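Q: What does the assembly look like in three dimensions?
Context provided by user:
Components: two
Sequences:
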Amino acid sequence: MFKLIKTNGKARRGEFHTPHGIIQTPVFMNVGTLAAIKGAVSTVDLKEVGCQVELSNTYHLHLRPGDKIIKKLGGLHKFMNWDRPILTDSGGFQVFSLAALRKIKEEGVYFNSHIDGRKIFMGPEESMQIQSNLGSTIAMAFDECIENPSTYEYAKASCERTVRWLVRCKNELDRLNSLPDTINKKQMLFGINQGGIYDDLRVKNMQEISKLDLPGYAIGGLAVGESHDEMYRIIEVVEPHMPVHKPRYLMGVGTPSNILEAVSRGIDFFDCVIASRNARHANLFTEHGTMNLLNAKYELDDKPIDPDCQCPTCRHYSRAYIRHLFKAKEMLGMRLGVLHNLYFYNKLMENIRNAIENDQFEAYKEKKLKDFSSRL
Amino acid sequence: MFKLIKTNGKARRGEFHTPHGIIQTPVFMNVGTLAAIKGAVSTVDLKEVGCQVELSNTYHLHLRPGDKIIKKLGGLHKFMNWDRPILTDSGGFQVFSLAALRKIKEEGVYFNSHIDGRKIFMGPEESMQIQSNLGSTIAMAFDECIENPSTYEYAKASCERTVRWLVRCKNELDRLNSLPDTINKKQMLFGINQGGIYDDLRVKNMQEISKLDLPGYAIGGLAVGESHDEMYRIIEVVEPHMPVHKPRYLMGVGTPSNILEAVSRGIDFFDCVIASRNARHANLFTEHGTMNLLNAKYELDDKPIDPDCQCPTCRHYSRAYIRHLFKAKEMLGMRLGVLHNLYFYNKLMENIRNAIENDQFEAYKEKKLKDFSSRL
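A: Here is the predicted structure of the complete assembly.
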């Protein structure tokens, strides 16, 4: 159940109530693809950096260790020792971005594993079965994520099929939620809006999927080739057709600036790998701009990454030390970087929530867009 | 200052007082070669796993980031944010095991860096200067660590030179400790006993170096090719000639069983990379024996690595989960493994200290030698 607490322009301050606790929105989900956050970060650490929702991947966990193994072990929450909400991606995006030799049919997708090449079939029902085995809080619909730009004809056919798949997802999850040995019988399904860069397809698709009255809706198929301006335009086109009292999730987005822009256009949920991926390359976010710690000027810099930051890294270690760790290829460098960047993202969302509550979101956004564009 | 509190057979329970706090002995030093513990473990973590003394490497830190950089940043304690004792290895062992094209002369060793091949000279004075720049609590003497077996003639010439080098180390450290800008003016020098596998050389060498009245003494050149029985015999031969009221450090040793055997022969200090290295290969120590988590039988095992263990890993994560992390090559697997093994070693030393205090060391040792030989 989504409770819209306050709006400030299009920006929304909400609460999403789940069986695993309340999610304060806008929220950034911290990505743990394989039931672990890259950079040696654990679920104990996630709590310390203020993570509300962890995101794992159906495709990856189906291959390793296998969703049936995780079900036998009591589900993903128990497996990774995380009692807060988990959202699982449907596998759709990974099937299209990672798997080889894929063949799309009405029933689903035939493809080869990117690990051992074995043949796998995944359709809406299989994706729901896997996500049900994982027992996540929120299951994402199985969709086709097309590249931008694709032709109008391809985008149209694809998103019409995605609607048919969504109906099958809903029916299958309803069935699974009613089975006696299902781990999370209150698993929720989010639908995903597609349509490439074509406004009319996006709108029609959103109107159709909103009729299913799902617990939440995502905008998918962005940040896959189009410009930022196109992305913002599509959000503006789709948003008026999204249910007001359901959470809205912009999948795979993005930079701190992307998030500010999307919140100002009415988005509530975000996820992106750049928080952790950038950190693993010594690219760090701060309230005053971004920095790359490999830069020689940090060799003798004994300040924390961000002197105002209260993250586990900034409370204990200096730029010079972390730079040394990266240069010496010590894993600890990545860990300290990831902890900092995740904390930064989670804190950013907290600041956004506060700004909305105080009717100051636009001023906050304008100031931070300037701050974040600095290169330290 | 070393305070011998209690003996139980040859086993000793002591306290080593340093400017960075008291070390309770017997003690296992946790290895952080490059000012970081491999496996993404930080100094904050070291406190959580009960580490008393951290060990870093002169050779490695001289190359990266450079000891002069660390000095400018206030020394190694400040650099890595660790306020407890640090022991620095002299670089001797690494020059002989890692560097290429080394040439040993009376003045010291000429060699090429294993990183970029550049020519470096290191003698007793240089080693002391580097360790003084690092500002460690305990500096180790610069010695030649010969392979076992070496010829009698070579071992004799080498350990006679090592005694001449030790005198130079002492003089140089005395000079450095009196300089106004030295970071730790109370830096202590430990001498190192050498002599290969030749009892008479070992004894003569120990008698000579003990005359220098240094704050502590190590037995070096073991665990480099000889059998365990030879190692124990050499400890038994050397030990009666080691000062009673100085700590005794067996360098680079060893397994939990090696440590029990060496404590029973009068050793106080240990260090070894196997605690962390084994963990990074999923080889874990428990009170009931060793296990390799890659073994398929742990796939559905939801118990902690050791159900009786209170380490940060065992308090939160299962064998099945950590096994998955190793299989999926997630860095978090290594981190959780290393945290467990370091905790295990530090706890082992605590148990050893308690057993000595209670006059039960031999019984404890016999029981644990059996436990540790089990393969789970």
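Follow-up: Chain A touches chain B at residues 34-44, 64-65, 69, 72-74, 78-81, 299-300, 302, 312, 316-318, 320-321, 323-325, 327-328, 330-336 (CB under 8 Å).
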